[in-house]
Amino acid sequence: MTAVLVAAAAIALLGTTADPDLWGHVRFGQDILASHHLPGTDAYSFTSDRPWINHEWLAEVAMALAFNVGGASGLNLLRLVVIGLSLLLVWSHLEDVDDLLRLQLVAVAGTGVLLRVHPFRPQVFSVWLFALMLWLITRAERRDSMAPLVAVPLIMIPWVNLHGGWIVGIGTLGFWIATRVAFRRMPSRRVALLALVGVAACLATLVNPYGLDMWRFLADTVRVERPMISDWQPTFALPVGFAALWLIPAGVAVVAMMRGRDRIDWLNAALVACLGIAALRVSRLDAFFALATVFFLGPRVSRPGEAVATNPTPAASATGWRLTLVAVLVVIVATGVWQLPRIKVGPGSPEPDAAQFIRDHRLEGRMLTWFDWGEYAIWHLSPRIRVSIDGRRETVYTDEVYASHLAFYSGVPGAENYADVIGADYVWLPRALPVVQTLLARGWHGAFEGPVSIVLTRSAPAGPVRSTSPGGVRMFPSF
Fold first, then answer.
1. Which of 156, 388, 420, 471 could form a disulfide linkage to 204, CB 3.0–4.6 angstroms apart?
2. Which residues of 14-52 are buried (b: 16+ CB within 10 A; e: fewer)?
3. Are strands 344-345 and 17-18 parallel, antiparallel or unpaired?
4. Residue 414 predicted with pLDDT over 70
């Protein structure tokens, strides 16, 4: 059963798909590498109306380097290395746990972070650095020493430049420090040192190209109301698989509290509970919840007396276990080699014939785009085409621009004028949207129509193009 669990978790982690923003992440990273500076304004969209605070610039540089060196294989290898480092920290932390349970808990951690690392995006770096922060905190607890905590502010420096998940890291660290100061008797010197670690960690996040503007940007933009982003929806409002992946660490937490209630640190249990509740409210926090559960409560799943040293394995069982482990490793390695160059383009992407049509007909100008296709269009169609919106959302767009697009897509009365308001030359949308028929009735012309999308132009085309091919299985970054 453990072999099946480990193999299933590993195989799930090895496969990946192209997140709608992957094209943009790689392109923006390539731009930084080429220009050796961070652009302050956006050149890819004609509706961007705020300074560009690229809070993921370092992640994008890493992704661009990996792609430039190894293409899709390089990208996926970088993703797998970061995931591997995260799980290695989990494995290291569970050094006093029976080997079988140790593997099970690593598989639980891998399953818990799956949705945040399966498509490659900057959030994978937050998973790794959060695991590293927890590893340092638990080392400090285990050794009753402040020394491991000295490194916590240092990891905040790359984290603030890689992904906005550092906010969760600071919040978790702050909760851990505050509860210890409030509920534990400790020398005033240790209290001062804990406070110093917290302050130093906050100050370390100022080591970024934008300084305090990074704080202001995130304070203005981080919120839970993001209607088109599934990651930001409540877990219970999403398909049942999301809840199932939340229930796995939740089950581990319950078992740990039942079996180890006389050995458990209830302050850490409270921290895990807070992260679990937060993950119910915002789905994308589930990875942090899973990691905190395994780090803080995982060792308590074992009953007293089940440690490695007091539970020797019989020779026959050990041989069978080794053979099983070898078989699992062979399956995992073979799957990894096969999956490495395969970053599948998801089913929500437009058919390749649409982008090919736009390029072949040398369309040039402003295109009102579907939200998820913006960075796909940037990769394939810029600089001839500038998009109206893309996955950067509040990074380069104000709330008004974002809300106007949502109203336009939804067919809110009067919102169909938005294409005229922004001076769009073309419209590229999913053909099933009701607003498409409204635009056709108002004088727009269907220049291309496929099974997924439609391209509308203001002037009548010489001959409309229709495609019936969805394009089959595609790999990043091709059409």
1. 156
2. bebbbbbbbbbbbbbbbbbeeeeeeeeebebbbbbebeb
3. parallel
4. yes
Q: Both tokens of residue 219?
A: 């304070």
Our CA dihedral for 436, 439, 443, 445, rounded to 10 degrees, sits at -30
Portion of the chain with pLDDT greater than 90, in percent: 69
Rounded-to-integer distance, Cα 389 and Cα 405, Å: 8
Cα separation of 87 and 294, whole Å? 11
Residue 303: CB atoms within 10 A of its CB come to 10
pLDDT in tens, 335-366: 888 888 999 998 889 999 999 999 999 999 99
Looking at residue 309, what is its pLDDT?
A: 44
Alpha carbon dihedral 102, 118, 284, 412, in 10-degree steps, equals: -160
* Neighbouring-strand partners of residue 6: none
As a whole number of angstroms, the distance between CA 331 and CA 373 comes to 35
Q: Which residue has the tokens 């049509």?
A: 357
**CA 162 to the chain's CA centroid:** 11
pLDDT of res. 220: 81
- Name the residue among 253, 170, 218 with its Cα closest to residue 393: 218
- Whole-angstrom CA distances from 382 to 70, 364, 401 are 23, 9, 21
Question: Of 370 and 233, which is predicted with more confidence?
Answer: 370
C-alpha pair distances (Å), 476 with each of 16, 229, 386, 417:
11, 21, 21, 34
Residue closest to 425 by CA, chosen among 379, 393, 388, 470: 388
Digit-coded pLDDT (tens) for 426-441: 999 999 999 999 999 9
Instruction: Provide mean pLDDT across the span 293-317.
Output: 70
Strand partners, 449: 454, 466
User: How far is residue 21's CA from residue 30's CA, in Å, rounded to a whole number?
Assistant: 14
Tell me the backbone φ, ψ of residue 47, rounded to 5 degrees. Answer: -115, 0
Whether residue 275 contacts residue 285, with contact meaning beta carbons closer than 8 Å, is answered with yes
| Segments making up each domain of the chain, as ranges | 2-339, 352-466
**Cα 346 to Cα 17: distance, rounded to the nearest angstrom:** 6
- Spatial separation of the C-alpha atoms in residues 224 and 231, rounded to whole Å: 10
- Amino acid letter, 184: R
- Residues whose CB falls within 8 Å of the CB of residue 390, separated by 6 or more in sequence, listed in order: 21, 24, 44, 45, 369, 371, 374, 375, 377, 378
Percent of the chain with pLDDT over 70: 95
Cα dihedral 165, 167, 169, 175 sign = negative
Query: pTM for the complete prediction?
Result: 0.92
Alpha helix positions (H), 151-285 = 152-162, 166-183, 188-204, 212-221, 240-259, 266-281
